[in-house]
């Protein structure tokens, strides 16, 4: 069998980043780079982060050449590069209703009273000024100023409430009686604003890669392209309906677990009773090492059959966000495939139970109140981040395949306000530890996705409505981290798994994720296995969603009596049916699980 194996060290002629060079950038792409408004590589945000995280003491020393006492006072002020606080530490009392000053004398009295307050408690106001670059900090500083005005014998506001912040900052910067520490706090506020703006700009350049074609072309041209023949339909490798592992000790442990563990649903032919296959890399057509990015095309059709990009995010804060999101989803939601290894949960839209098809958001929480509205929006934002970065990373045919499917079917995107709104553009909100930025008009993620933890399945294929699927392995860690590799069996491809890897495959071809090197008898969603842990976030779609959504849209157009009549007829039709063991009508997560992949 022909074979093209990549060594772990890669091609000696490849660039030092481990990518394989297949083509040279065209002159047109070079011209685009010169004209591009954003000419930074995707790693700019990381370098910017390194550049702006100097110790606080060094910044203070340069900012305050004066007395040591003032430096000591200012050392307690916040780090200008730290993320803005997401919530106030203490709830603020409501602002009192104070009349507006009507004469210049009253305005001068307000200014004098506020300056006296600054002089009497400079440390407190210095901290308030330094933190006022964030919305919460601005509110706290304005409330402190209003409390000063309200405490006078004749309470008056010097300006309109909306202009109080500008008035306060003007007093701090121009009044000769202002203590020195307040002047330096104002400088610190200015630097904080500039750092946040630069951080936002750099982060936007790494997320919205489609805004800069030169960056997209430069990145895509650094990966190798391989051409492979598909294996005979009767001879995919590894073979269908087999669990896959590459080590004998892992195979023996998993086979024992499969032999003694009852099936999750005995009515199904699929399940843990399939044998465990010991994979031989020497029989593969292509083995992709964990540090190599590449694209694989079919020799006969010229179509992309596989693509993988390493260091997809390259941002520790984003990876930490993904980790806690997958853990939160896996521990609070019902898995859609109990017969598989690990946990896989649906996020977004579902076609409902097999016996009662119903389009809507998956209601698969394990208990009421397990995830509030903020959690739902956080998961939606994470998926929107992955989608927008993937649009600038993956080849255009893969992205256009998703867009065509959602456009032709008019399926909604992952809008957290659905069904009140059905927009394709929305807000991307990053959590505080990722900068706390909000980007408007971001393209929302596809409406169907899954989060998976230590997930594996037998070699299989399915129909999803669109040709390609997209997966991001956001985490891979453990003391004995073996297995969990991805196999595109129809072309004999083995992709070695690595953390922060984005890849795309054809669900209609034979494929699977291999078993991991952890103890299956001790596996539980809430447990972070010390030997092996792997997280995935994938855009996959049930083959039933398209038809169920069309029915949903048709019923929405009916009059109220017609909808009631149709619901009664459907209830009578399915009144004797039962749902799958892994789903229920109550939670709405009963997908035809053969259509799902993690």
How would you sum up this structure, described in words?
The protein is α+β, with helices and mostly antiparallel strands and 598 residues long. It folds into 2 domains: 57-204, no CATH class; 212-595, no CATH class. Helix content is 35%, strand content 16%. The protein has 16 helices and 17 strands. It has helices at 27-35, 44-51, 56-63, 68-74, 104-120, 122-130, 135-150, 164-174, 180-207, 213-220, 248-260, 316-332, 373-391, 396-409, 545-556, 560-574; strands at 224-228, 243-245, 276-278, 286-288, 294-298, 304-310, 341-352, 357-361, 425-429, 438-443, 448-456, 469-477, 486-488, 493-495, 501-505, 511-513, 533-539. The strands form 4 sheets. It has a 9-stranded mixed beta sheet with strand order 1-5-6-15-12-17-11-7-8. A 4-stranded mixed beta sheet has the order 4-14-13-16, with no helix packed on it. Strands 2-3 form a two-stranded parallel sheet. The longest helix is centred in the first third of the chain and has 28 residues, at 180-207. Mean pLDDT is 79; it is low at 5-71, 84-89 and 575-598. Residues 70-89 have a biased composition (Polar residues).
Put simply, the count of helices is: 16
Task: State the total count of DSSP E strands.
Answer: 17
**Overall pLDDT:** 79
Shape call: elongated
The value of Rg in angstroms is 29 Å
The main sheet comes to: 9 strands, mixed
Strand order of the largest sheet: 1-5-6-15-12-17-11-7-8
Query: What is the domain tally?
Result: 2
What is the straight-line distance between the termini?
30 Å
The low-confidence runs, each spanning 5 or more residues with pLDDT under 50, are: 5-71, 84-89, 575-598
> Structural class of the secondary elements?
alpha+beta
As a percent range, the share of strand residues is: 15-25%
Helix content: 25-40%
Biased composition (Low complexity): 35-62
Biased composition (Acidic residues): 582-598
Biased composition (Polar residues): 70-89
Region (Disordered): 1-107, 569-598
């Amino acid at each position: 069998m022909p074979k093209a194996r990549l060594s772990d060290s890669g091609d000696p002629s490849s660039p030092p980043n481990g990518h394989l060079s297949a083509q040279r950038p065209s002159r047109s792409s070079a011209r685009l780079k010169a004209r591009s408004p954003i000419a930074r590589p995707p790693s700019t945000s990381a370098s910017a982060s390194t550049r702006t995280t100097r110790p606080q003491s060094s910044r203070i020393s340069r900012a305050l050449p004066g007395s040591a006492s003032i430096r000591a006072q200012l050392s307690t002020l916040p780090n200008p590069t730290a993320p803005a606080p997401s919530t106030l530490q203490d709830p603020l009392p409501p602002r009192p209703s104070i009349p507006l000053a009507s004469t210049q004398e009253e305005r001068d009295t307000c200014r004098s009273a506020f300056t006296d307050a600054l002089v009497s408690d400079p440390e407190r106001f210095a901290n308030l000024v330094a933190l006022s670059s964030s919305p919460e900090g601005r509110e706290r500083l304005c409330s402190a100023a209003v409390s000063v005005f309200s405490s006078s014998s004749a309470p008056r506001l010097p300006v309109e409430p909306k202009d109080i912040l500008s008035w306060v900052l003007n007093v701090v910067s121009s009044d000769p009686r202002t203590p020195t520490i307040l002047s330096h706090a104002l400088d610190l506020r200015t630097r904080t604003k500039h750092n946040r703006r630069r951080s936002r700009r750099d982060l936007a350049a790494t997320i919205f890669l489609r805004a800069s074609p030169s960056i997209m072309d430069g990145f895509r041209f650094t990966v190798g392209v391989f051409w492979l023949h598909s294996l005979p339909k009767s001879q995919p490798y590894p073979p269908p309906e087999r669990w896959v592992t590459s080590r004998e000790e892992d195979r023996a442990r998993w086979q024992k677990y499969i032999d003694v563990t009852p099936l999750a649903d005995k009515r199904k032919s699929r399940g843990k009773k399939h044998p465990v296959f010991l994979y031989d890399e020497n029989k593969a057509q292509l083995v992709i090492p964990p540090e190599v990015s590449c694209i694989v095309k079919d020799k006969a059709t010229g179509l992309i059959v596989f693509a993988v990009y390493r260091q997809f995010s390259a941002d520790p804060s984003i990876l930490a966000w993904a980790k806690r999101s997958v853990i939160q989803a896996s521990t609070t939601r019902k898995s859609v495939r109990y017969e598989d290894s690990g946990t896989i949960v649906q996020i977004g839209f579902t076609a409902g139970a097999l016996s009662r098809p119903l389009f809507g958001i998956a209601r698969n929480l394990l208990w009421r109140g397990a995830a509030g509205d903020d959690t739902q929006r956080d998961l939606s934002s994470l998926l929107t981040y992955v989608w927008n970065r993937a649009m600038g990373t993956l080849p255009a045919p893969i992205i256009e395949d998703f867009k065509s499917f959602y456009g032709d079917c008019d399926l909604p995107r992952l809008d957290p306000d659905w069904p009140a709104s059905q927009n394709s553009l929305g807000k991307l909100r990053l959590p505080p530890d990722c900068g706390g930025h909000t980007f408007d008009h971001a393209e929302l993620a596809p409406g169907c996705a899954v989060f998976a933890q230590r997930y594996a399945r037998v070699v299989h294929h399915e129909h999803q409505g669109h040709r390609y699927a997209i997966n991001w392995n956001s985490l891979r860690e453990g003391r004995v981290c073996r297995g969990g590799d991805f196999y595109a069996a129809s072309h004999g491809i083995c992709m070695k798994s690595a953390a922060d890897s984005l890849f795309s495959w054809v669900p209609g071809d034979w494929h699977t994720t291999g078993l991991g090197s952890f103890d299956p008898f001790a596996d539980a969603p809430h447990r972070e296995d010390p030997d092996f842990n792997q997280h995935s976030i994938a855009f996959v779609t049930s083959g039933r969603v398209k038809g169920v959504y069309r029915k949903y849209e048709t019923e929405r157009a009916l009059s109220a009596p017609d909808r009631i009549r149709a619901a009664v007829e459907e209830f009578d039709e399915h009144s004797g049916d039962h749902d799958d063991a892994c789903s229920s009508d109550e939670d709405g997560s009963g997908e035809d699980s053969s259509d799902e992949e993690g």
